[in-house]
UniProtKB/TrEMBL annotation:
This is DUF4397 domain-containing protein. InterPro entries: DUF4397 (IPR025510). It comes from Chitinophaga barathri. Pfam families: DUF4397 (PF14344). Residues 107-186 form the DUF4397 domain.
């Protein structure tokens, strides 16, 4: 069940950032406590997505030993949010109480700063532990824990953002979680990004910033993900305003394959599902 002591807690509300999807929708300011850390979860594992679709079940997460029973779990990847974007986030940003799948603003839980234990569990009735990890959240910082897999072997990636975009600045970072795409190069608006080298699997870029003139409301970033040759693997466009941060997630398999499930020994066939997805917050 929930931890409520002074060291570990989950605040009983979601912090919805940037819900300015339509002119009729307004973002209500949240009053954050000084000790707040903000935490989000994102699944890029096709292995887990397929398991959720098979049983029409949610995949619970445990935080600091909280319950993983599906009818009690506070945190879960919910199969009903798979949608056309093929992504699973928790929490999911909502507009007027309805899931928004057309433009994925990030939402965050409030948790106590410090070390936390997170477990990812199967969506079947057993809720078996798939993998677990230790993370450390920081005061006032936003963080995201990604679940990935390569041929059925689960892995995690934990990213922390302790900074903010400047008043007339927009910025992005790019995270590579595609198991078979190989190293990739990134191009924005026809220009290759200046990076130390190609972006490798389970790595992320530093924040890349653009100044937006005073007379300009936003800027459109046209992103291409290329192999280290000339092939364009995927594209995404992101309209971003001053003060906003974009997070581009590269994931899914570029090629089809089959493998033996490490847990069951069964043969699993995977379909190409390479994606370049956009997240955004401010």
């Amino acid at each position: 069940m929930k931890k409520t002591n002074s060291k570990k807690y989950i605040r009983g509300k979601f912090l919805a950032f940037g819900i300015l999807l339509f002119t009729a929708c307004e973002k209500t300011p949240e009053i954050l406590q000084p000790e707040d850390s903000r935490l989000s979860f994102y699944n890029t594992s096709q292995h887990l997505e397929n398991a959720m679709r098979t049983v029409y079940g949610s995949a619970p997460l445990s935080l600091d030993g909280s319950s993983v029973r599906e009818d009690e779990a506070d945190i879960r990847f919910d199969y009903i949010t798979l949608g056309e974007w093929g992504q699973v986030m928790f929490p999911v940003a909502t507009v007027n109480g309805t899931f928004d799948r057309s433009f994925p603003w990030m939402s965050f839980l409030s948790v106590s700063p410090g070390r936390h234990s997170v477990g990812f569990h199967s969506p079947d009735s057993l809720h078996s532990l798939l993998t677990e990890t230790e993370i450390e959240t920081r005061t006032g910082a936003r963080s995201c824990l990604f679940l990935a897999d390569s041929l059925g072997v689960y892995q995690t990636l934990f990213l922390v953002d302790e900074s903010r975009a400047a008043a007339r600045e927009a910025r992005i970072r790019v995270t590579h979680l595609s198991p078979d795409a190989g190293p990739v190069e990134l191009w924005v608006n026809g220009q290759q990004l200046d990076m130390p080298g190609a972006l490798q699997y389970r790595n992320t870029t530093a924040f890349i910033s653009w100044d937006i003139p005073e007379n300009q409301a936003d800027t459109l970033l046209r992103l291409q993900v290329r192999s280290t040759g000339t092939d364009i693997l995927g594209r995404a466009n992101l309209s971003i305003k001053p003060g906003e941060t974009g997070h581009i997630i590269i994931y899914g398999y570029y090629n089809g394959a089959s493998y033996e499930d490490p847990a069951t020994g069964e043969t699993v066939t995977i379909s190409p599902d390479f994606k370049v997805r956009r997240l955004k917050y401010n």
